Amino acid sequence: MRKLDKSAGKRGFGEPVLTRQRKVVLDVVQSGDTHPTAGEVFAAARKMMPAISFATVYNSLRYLKQAGLVREVAFGNGASRYDRETDRHDHAICSECGTLVDFDLPGTVELIRAAARASRFKAESIHLTLVGLCPQCRAPK
Amino acid sequence: MRKLDKSAGKRGFGEPVLTRQRKVVLDVVQSGDTHPTAGEVFAAARKMMPAISFATVYNSLRYLKQAGLVREVAFGNGASRYDRETDRHDHAICSECGTLVDFDLPGTVELIRAAARASRFKAESIHLTLVGLCPQCRAPK
DNA sequence: CTATAAATTTAGAATTAGTATAATTCTAAC
DNA sequence: GTTAGAATTATACTAATTCTAAATTTATAG
Questions:
Q1: What domain range includes position B47?
Q2: I need a labelling partner for B113 at 20 to 30 A (CA). Which of A47, A117, B10, B128 fits?
Q3: Count: domains in chain B
């Protein structure tokens, strides 16, 4: 009786696993500093696995999100973007060119506590987004 | 020669103004504590102005947003929601029931400064969203 | 007063994003 | 090899939002 392991390619009975397609989707999101949309993830995933379908990319992103492996970043415009989930971090969006970058804010443990207190919610996570001008756009050239 | 004033209903040459339709949309967003979607705003606006079109609601929301009178709140799921822009404040979303509430976090002036420093962006605004369990959902009843 | 110009509104088409469905495929357990 | 259950695929569908072109509105210029 073989023990179930969670490596890529194993499916079937029991708990859900990191399948080949999910692995591909995860690799796409984790490689590179971009924050791709689902459509961009699909295009990149196709290069590694031409048969993968659009629906699977969405399903995989949802799975990876709830598994805590990727994060969804949504702002009002267009499509959601996906970000590798390494450590807790924050986002800055350029109001001029739309660039999205990660940054780390110290003292977020205290921040999350303060936010929980102010909102009376039991905090699970906190997301901080700064809107402003990126270094490129703030320097008129 | 009459001087242009910016009261509702005046259009034409020169700068854009708060038209009647935009005023209706603004009123809808400002009345009530809900955070309506564009569709909900449309439904409510229709009661005040039956001829208003869907596109105008979207256009108005975009205008009001960039004018700083309403705020768009987007999370990954479904439609964007709109919030009156009174003072700077933050949002908490219940991961269980989807409730969205406003709350105020003290010390955000320093926070925005720290975020600008960490991101190297010129800050315009900062948005903090807490995901967690609302008071109702955290109390199993 | 009349003509003009610029922005806005309207209605509906078009686009985009994301979800649902049903059939098929895959893999581990037996 | 058969079976069971989850995952994948392809496609259809729904919902959200933007675009387009024509008509409207109204402040200014003539």
A1: 1-86
A2: A117
A3: 2
